[in-house]
Q: What sequence folds into this?
């Protein structure tokens, strides 16, 4: 064995590679190719790969490059910065590896890749040389992009790509002219449209172009020949260098039905007489980029401004809005939620919103006549057409979505606008974007984009009301009733009573309310439950109206008022709890104040409570209030950003802390009641959703309590007192403790000694109990006791050989009994997202049975998290990628529906598991679950489809062989 061999054994782990044996072979091959067999080489390689988004892919590409060009790669290897950047680039893009293999000289650019350097294509003598120069610069752009490592670089990347394509087209036109000297006197210009026109091109996409000329009939034929040759230089499939990109000329006058090249006069006539509304929107991006300078200048002066007169056409705004809806309707239902470009909340929502405002207001404000989307957003904000915060959000969301699109396309340099579903692709993209879960991040961003799009694109922004007097804002009762009915209030009489209560009198409070309410009434009406929103606002105002800050904050911070209206008109849960935590209104001014508190922060707060108070009841009350506050914080994030399963972890964290500290309060209380200290130790084991860190807003604390070195009587007293402290409903919501998963269930002792518990696990523990242990997580225990318990629990749940046939029969019988006995009477199984076909129980039991069967042999399966277990089962081959996606999709949607039922309808207990039969209630939940699911048919259809697919995966896993 060589000196290097044992060191290589840990190489895969250090480099985050998935196949250790393969990793060792490839690392050895790379070392041989470069003449390096030392440990320093292995260390450098492992560190570089560990920081790559796809370490496995990067290593494969490095080996290929080393075998093809050992000298060039060997020289680069001596430079840590360029070497690390190469690994990162190859981990992001296999297409860049292909460029490197053809042109190893590009490795030199890794020393200082630039996005802003002037494009230098040299003096190419033919199409092959031009394409080679293009790909060299493309490599440098990609390297600089990956080196930047942040979406903030996206505008510079898009600009650099646009400059590269522009320079390439100019060079191609010169090559074509050299081949066609007979066309030397024919003026030709190329107009960039779409993303190239806006200077915001992707790595790979259609290049939208319109060629023009200014000549007679004979010259028109020559111009057409010249243009066709120019395009062929870039797109023809022959030659040693691949084609550059498809060229699309469909945006020219008359589209594909018209001639390829028209004169400037023909363009002017077309836009003046025949162009459709969408063609003026497209014209907004038109930018002359190549060809005859005079012709380019004339197009800029005579044709481009026509875009800003189109708003005077009848139905212009309605036509533009209808076009967006048609574009969205054209997407396959399968891709709609993943389509970054065209789907709801995608790039087109931002672009249509911005372009409509430009076209409407650009007639008189020439500062809006810019082509780049990001520049246009900035111009709109500077001119006051959109708020500064809305502009910042649009810019951030657009930048994120464009960066995501770039990262997807960069991988293989292929056109793609949909978020991939394969777990490996999502992991790679998550690492490249610096997020934990790219699917959930995309979902959150697109929800925010959709909200902004609908607010700006379909409804004019309401003017600020602070400058208006009470007389200006007053409405007669008859007019108020008519308006309330018109904007969607279901009970206008009740709404009028709330308005009267809030605005009557001559106080400053009433005067400010009279300024606020006309705006708030419309903002409530923008939500699915305006009546509930207004009622909650009245209750909150009754609680806070006399404070010095509340109404002033709403009046002066329009975003706070708008967000509050958004929350109250969508969530009865928030409307109830914000009255108990009224200072939560201040969280709306800053998003970071709504962020979940860490477990350490919560524990520090609990310590402070214990330091200030000695009474157990007071301590428990403050702990429950802390939980209520954190649940409200999570609820606000769910309603504002979209329901996310990541919020389950925050809900569990606060439950963990108050469960732990409530037991400490019970122990301290013991001495006061009994006149002596209680000895020994207690361990709290979280079970069920608490164990999996997947608690919802109405979850109980499923736990098992174990004692050591104390009497059973003392332990029972502590557990009883602990439960009562948490369950007290006075002044703050209780947290019910459920001990039903203890040994022998409800017929067993309330708590057991550690020895008894471990003996039980090793001997009499039934199959259903071992199944329940899959989600067992030791929440609190002294270290030695925790170690003993974990060993015993692991031995019980991850038995060598897995469950016996008899065990499986018992588990399956229990599952079948649940499906038949626990479904509420009169509820169709398909409407029950927990126990119905394809619901939470199907998904969780299916993956837990896989864990029971194979957990002894597969450490990756030893997790209490459903998401992590599904991912591990997919990685290990127990589920296909498609099966894992189907289980996860149903599990996520079911979890979102349950959270939505609590948030929208204030439901709790088993009621959160049932999709309401009432269409209005269903729409309230649907508005929180996701974009485009608020209509009855689509809500039912989407859940039914996901549940059906999940059931098809779960049944074989639960009832298959074994």
A:
């Amino acid at each position: 064995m060589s000196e290097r061999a044992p060191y290589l054994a840990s190489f895969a782990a250090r480099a985050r590679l998935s196949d250790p044996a393969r990793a060792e072979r490839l690392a050895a091959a790379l070392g041989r190719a470069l003449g390096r067999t030392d440990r320093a080489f292995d260390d450098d390689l492992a560190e570089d790969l560990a920081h790559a988004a796809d370490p496995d892919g990067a290593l494969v590409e490095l080996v290929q490059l080393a075998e093809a060009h050992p000298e060039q790669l060997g020289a680069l290897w001596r430079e840590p910065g360029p070497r690390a950047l190469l690994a990162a680039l190859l981990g992001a893009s296999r297409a860049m590896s292909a460029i490197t293999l053809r042109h190893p000289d590009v490795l030199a650019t890794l020393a200082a890749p630039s996005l802003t350097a002037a494009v230098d294509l040299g003096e190419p003598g033919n199409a092959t040389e031009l394409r080679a120069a293009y790909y060299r610069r493309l490599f440098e752009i990609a390297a600089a992009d990956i080196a930047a490592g942040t979406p903030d670089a996206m505008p510079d990347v898009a600009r650099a790509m646009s400059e590269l394509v522009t320079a390439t087209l100019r060079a191609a036109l010169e090559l074509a002219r050299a081949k066609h000297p007979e066309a030397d006197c024919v003026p030709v210009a190329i107009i960039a449209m779409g993303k190239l026109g806006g200077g915001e091109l992707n790595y790979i996409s259609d290049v939208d172009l319109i060629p023009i000329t200014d000549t007679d009939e004979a010259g028109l034929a020559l111009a057409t020949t010249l243009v066709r040759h120019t395009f062929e230089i870039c797109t023809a499939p022959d030659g040693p260098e691949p084609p550059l990109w498809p060229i699309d000329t469909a945006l020219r006058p008359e589209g594909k039905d018209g001639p390829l090249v028209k004169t400037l006069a023909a363009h002017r006539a077309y836009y003046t007489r025949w162009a459709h509304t969408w063609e003026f929107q497209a014209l907004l991006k038109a930018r002359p980029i190549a060809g005859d300078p005079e012709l380019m200048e004339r197009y800029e002066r005579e044709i481009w401004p026509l875009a800003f007169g189109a708003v005077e056409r009848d139905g212009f705004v309605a036509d533009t809005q209808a076009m967006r809806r048609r574009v969205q309707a054209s997407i396959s239902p399968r891709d709609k939620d993943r389509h970054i470009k065209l789907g709801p909340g995608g790039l087109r929502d931002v672009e249509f919103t911005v372009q409509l405002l430009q076209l409407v207001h650009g007639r008189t404000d020439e500062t809006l006549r810019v082509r780049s989307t990001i520049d246009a957003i900035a111009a709109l904000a500077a001119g006051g057409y959109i708020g500064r915060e809305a502009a910042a959000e649009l810019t951030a969301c657009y930048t994120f979505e464009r960066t995501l699109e770039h990262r997807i396309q960069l991988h293989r340099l292929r056109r793609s606008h949909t978020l991939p579903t394969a777990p490996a692709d999502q992991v790679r993209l998550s690492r490249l974007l610096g997020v934990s879960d790219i699917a959930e991040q995309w979902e959150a961003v697109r929800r925010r984009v959709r909200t902004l799009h609908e607010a700006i694109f379909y409804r004019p922004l309401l003017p600020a009301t602070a400058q208006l007097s009470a007389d200006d804002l007053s409405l007669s009762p008859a007019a108020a009733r008519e308006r309330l009915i018109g904007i969607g209030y279901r009970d206008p009489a009740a709404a009028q009573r709330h308005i009267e209560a809030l605005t009557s009198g001559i106080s400053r409070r009433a005067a400010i309310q009279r300024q606020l309410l006309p705006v708030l009434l419309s903002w409530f009406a923008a939500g699915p439950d305006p009546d509930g929103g207004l009622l909650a606002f009245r209750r909150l105002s009754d609680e806070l109206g006399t404070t010095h800050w509340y109404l002033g904050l709403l009046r002066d911070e329009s975003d706070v008022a708008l967000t509050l209206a958004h929350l109250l008109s969508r969530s009865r849960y928030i409307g109830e709890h914000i009255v108990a935590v009224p200072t939560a209104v201040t969280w709306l001014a800053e998003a970071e104040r709504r962020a979940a508190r860490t477990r350490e922060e919560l524990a520090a707060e609990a310590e402070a409570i214990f330091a200030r108070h000695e009474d157990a009841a007071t301590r428990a009350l403050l702990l429950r209030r802390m939980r209520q506050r954190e649940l409200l914080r999570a609820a606000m994030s769910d309603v504002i950003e979209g329901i996310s399963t990541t919020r389950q972890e925050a809900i569990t964290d606060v439950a963990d802390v108050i469960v732990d500290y409530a037991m400490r309060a019970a122990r301290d209380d013991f001495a006061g009641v009994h006149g002596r200290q209680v000895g020994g130790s207690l361990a709290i084991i979280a079970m069920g959703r608490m164990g999996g860190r997947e608690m919802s807003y109405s979850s109980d604390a499923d736990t098992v309590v174990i004692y050591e070195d104390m009497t059973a009587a003392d332990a029972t007293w502590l557990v009883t007192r602990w439960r009562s402290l948490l369950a007290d409903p006075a002044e703050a919501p209780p947290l019910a403790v459920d001990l039903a998963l203890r040994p022998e269930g409800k017929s067993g002792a309330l708590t057991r000694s550690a020895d008894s518990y471990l003996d039980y696990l090793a001997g009499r523990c039934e199959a259903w109990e071992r199944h329940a242990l899959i989600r067992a997580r030791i929440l609190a225990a002294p270290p030695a006791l925790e170690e003993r318990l974990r060993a015993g629990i692991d031995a019980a749940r991850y038995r060598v050989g897995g469950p016996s046939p008899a065990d499986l029969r018992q588990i399956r019988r229990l599952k079948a009994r649940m499906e038949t006995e626990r479904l509420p009477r009169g509820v169709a199984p398909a409407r029950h997202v927990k126990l119905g076909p394809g619901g939470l129980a199907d998904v969780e039991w299916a993956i837990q049975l896989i864990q029971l069967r194979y957990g002894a042999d597969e450490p990756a399966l030893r997790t209490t998290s459903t998401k992590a277990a599904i991912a591990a089962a997919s990685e290990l081959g127990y589920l296909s990628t498609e099966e894992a996606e189907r289980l996860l999709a149903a599990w996520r949607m079911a979890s979102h529906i349950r959270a939505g039922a609590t948030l929208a309808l204030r439901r709790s207990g088993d009621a959160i598991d049932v999709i309401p039969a009432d269409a209005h209630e269903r729409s309230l939940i649907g508005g929180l679950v996701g974009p485009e699911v608020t209509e009855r048919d689509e809500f039912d259809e989407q859940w039914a489809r996901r549940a059906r697919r999940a059931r098809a995966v779960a049944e074989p896993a639960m009832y298959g062989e074994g």
